[in-house]
Design brief:
GO terms for molecular function: protein-disulfide reductase activity. The chain is mostly helical and 169 residues long. The protein has seven helices and two strands. The chain has a two-stranded antiparallel sheet.
Length: 169
Amino acid sequence: MNRKSKVKPLFSRRVKTHRLAYALLLILSTASLGAAWYLQNVKDLAPCPLCIMQRFGFWAFALFSVMGLIKGHLGRLSSVVAIFSGVCATGVAAYHNWVLMQPKTECGIDPVQNVVNQLPTAQWWPDMFMATGMCGAKLPLYFGVSIPQWSLVVLLSSTLIFLLILLKK
């Protein structure tokens, strides 16, 4: 038997397609995290607990995207965990948008904020993971869309991309 026929090429068509998808996911997640950092530290918009929880979803996407870029594909378990992380973060973003549509609903300083601020990440990197704002605060619009709506769109689309990658295997 020919030894070369058993070896898969590193950059087969399928792997290239996955790497491009993982690169797109990495760009989406890091751009979202960069925008969050910019809005917090330059524009002085204080993040609420729900914002911080959405950032965890973006970090998870960035981590799984880097793993996918390095390997060319994620295993089934890693893909399922990435999708689960995305579903959770998307749910938080949807709830955040619902809170903003309810004029009398506030999550402010509540047990969620206390839990988020007690996590080790809030101590290690307070600029990124310390919740100091109110969930119901009026936020500026960017291109006619609020920040939580942008977050919902990016988290949902990223989750769907991970799902499509898993289904293409």
